[in-house]
Design a protein that fits this description.
The complex is a heterodimer of chains A (120) and B (385). Chain A contains 3 helices and 6 strands, in the order βααββββαβ. By secondary structure, chain A is α+β, with helices and mostly antiparallel strands. Chain A is flat, with a radius of gyration of 17 Å. Chain B contains 19 helices and 2 strands.
Chain lengths: 120, 385
């Protein structure tokens, strides 16, 4: 068993589609997210998961050269909206789980990364 | 786990924030409401549905709104702007009465009510009012700038009631039979119209009998929801519905409202439509139903009323009477309902080939996906002449 980080990125275009969803569509998509988390929890693979707010800072450099800007790292274009840290048999298994992420239906980009194996 | 009904939550949050922060922040309020729903996506899947979802959504939207407003103005200004009033009405009614400002045109009022209390987006409003989306967006932007908390009335006038009832009627109509898209019925929309109408009826007591008439009309129509769709969510037309499936509790509530509605001799369109809906829910004889349609069409001769009348005529007196009547409705030639009705009575009259062609026309004109499927199926079942 290995650990994987599933990160959900929202593009500016994806943000636009969110703004136009009707209350019913919001409710339906939330139900899907709830069911997705529930499934990961029931399968015993959910190690952690959270949503990230837009409040924050981005820091670059040190000492006198240190620059702090407000908000998330906007040069990335796509902003991290949330993440799941899960356990899976292998990368294929984690991929299969990440492909079911409900955010994909709203234009999000989903990344799955394996935790570094230090071979110890 | 179940999530609360977001359409009802949408109007609660919006109405609460307008009451607290004032209508001139409406743009930010609508954004904050939407943000609260998005934030729920980030939190609830990980932490579960909160014990008090409404409270959670309102608090989240309020925090978001204050954040947004802080960027624009100093917080002290926001707080001093809070409208102070002694209105003991629910937040939703407060917002309704505010939107009835005489500074707004009738159309402006309806657009803003559908946007805030109905939770419809501008595309949906555009479809309901047969206007372009751009026109609706322009109208909403212009109307919002004219809102002023000082215009608030706690005693609605007959004109404001007319605009409110028209809005609720439009909201219900869209829920009852959705003109476009994947759903035949949108029960959330219909229920939202009922909840708001019930609040209005409670608040205005017996001042406006037409409010009770609309409430009765909604109850009677909701009573038939269980019989109106197949298990695959396809429409079942009135002639094929099973009255045993009608919801008796809703019918009972409908009659309670009807009694209050008819404590007047001045009958509105809502009165007549409620009477008709009652007769249909009770599976009354075709002649009695035709009688209601006769009254409706002579007092309020809209194109749809005339088509419904023609259908009732056919059910009571046979296909020839209906076909003769439908032939006079040339202004409805682009309506899918016109061709569906034509097909139905042509088939009853034994003209299967013409009926199949009418159903094809109706299928190509309707924008509702379940209606398209149901009409195609009906047309295909016809054997050639």
């Amino acid at each position: 068993m290995k650990n994987y980080l599933i990160t959900i990125f929202n593009s500016p275009e994806a943000e636009k589609t969110w703004e136009n969803l009707t209350p019913e569509q919001m409710q339906a998509s939330l139900s899907k997210y709830m069911a997705y988390s529930e499934r990961l929890r029931n399968e015993g693979r959910l190690l952690a998961g959270e949503g990230l707010s837009m409040n924050g800072h981005t820091i670059r450099g040190t000492g006198a050269d240190q620059h702090v800007t407000d908000g998330p790292h906007i040069l990335a274009k796509e902003l991290v909206g949330g993440f799941y840290f899960i356990t899976a048999e292998n990368l294929d298994g984690a991929l299969a789980i990440a492909r079911d992420c409900p955010g994909l239906a709203h234009g999000a980009t989903v990344e799955v990364r394996e935790q570094m194996d230090y071979g110890q | 786990m179940d999530t609360p009904n977001f359409r009802a939550e949408h109007s609660k949050i919006t109405a609460h924030l307008v009451r607290k922060f004032g209508p001139h922040h409406l743009d930010d309020i609508l954004d904050a409401t939407q943000e609260a729903f998005i934030t729920a996506h980030q939190s609830w899947p990980h932490h579960g549905t909160p014990l008090n979802p409404t409270g959670w959504l309102i608090t989240t939207a309020e925090r978001r709104l204050i954040d947004q407003l802080r960027h624009k103005i100093r917080l002290e200004t926001i707080v001093s702007e809070l409208p102070i009033n002694e209105v003991k009405s629910p937040d939703e009614l407060h917002l309704f009465f505010l939107l009835c400002s005489p500074k707004l045109s009738y159309q402006d009022q309806i657009c803003l009510m559908l946007r805030t209390l109905g939770g419809l987006n501008s595309a949906e409003i555009a479809r309901l009012l047969h206007q372009s989306e751009e026109a609706i967006q322009r109208r909403i932007t212009r109307a919002k700038s004219k809102l002023n908390p000082a215009d608030l009335t706690t005693h609605p006038t007959a004109e404001s009631i007319t605009a409110i009832l028209k809005t609720l009627y439009l909201l219900f109509t869209e829920g009852y039979e959705t003109a476009r898209g994947p759903d035949h019925i949108r029960p959330d929309l219909a229920r939202q119209a009922l909840v708001l109408t019930a609040q209005l009826a409670l608040h205005t007591k017996s001042d406006f009998p037409e409010v009770h008439a609309l409430k009765a009309l909604i109850h009677f129509n909701i009573s038939r929801f269980p019989a109106r769709t197949t298990s695959e969510n396809l429409p079942i037309f009135l002639a094929d519905q099973d009255p045993a499936q009608y919801d008796q509790h809703q019918i009972q509530l409908g009659f309670q409202s009807l009694e209050q509605a008819f404590q007047t001799t001045f009958l509105t369109q809502y009165h007549l439509e409620a009477g008709l809906a009652a007769a249909i829910s009770l599976n009354a004889p075709a002649e009695e139903i035709l009688n209601w349609h006769d009254q409706l069409v002579s007092s309020f001769p809209s194109p749809n009323a005339r088509l419904s009348h023609a259908i009732a005529l056919g059910t009571a007196q046979g296909p020839e009477a209906a076909l003769a009547q439908i032939a006079t409705l040339t202004d409805l030639i682009e309506s899918p309902y016109y061709h569906a009705a034509l097909g139905y009575f042509q088939a009853k009259d034994g003209q299967n080939q013409a009926a199949a062609e009418s159903y094809r026309r109706a299928t190509s004109l309707t924008m509702s996906l379940p209606m398209k499927q149901a009409l195609t199926r009906t047309g295909e079942l016809l054997s050639p002449d």
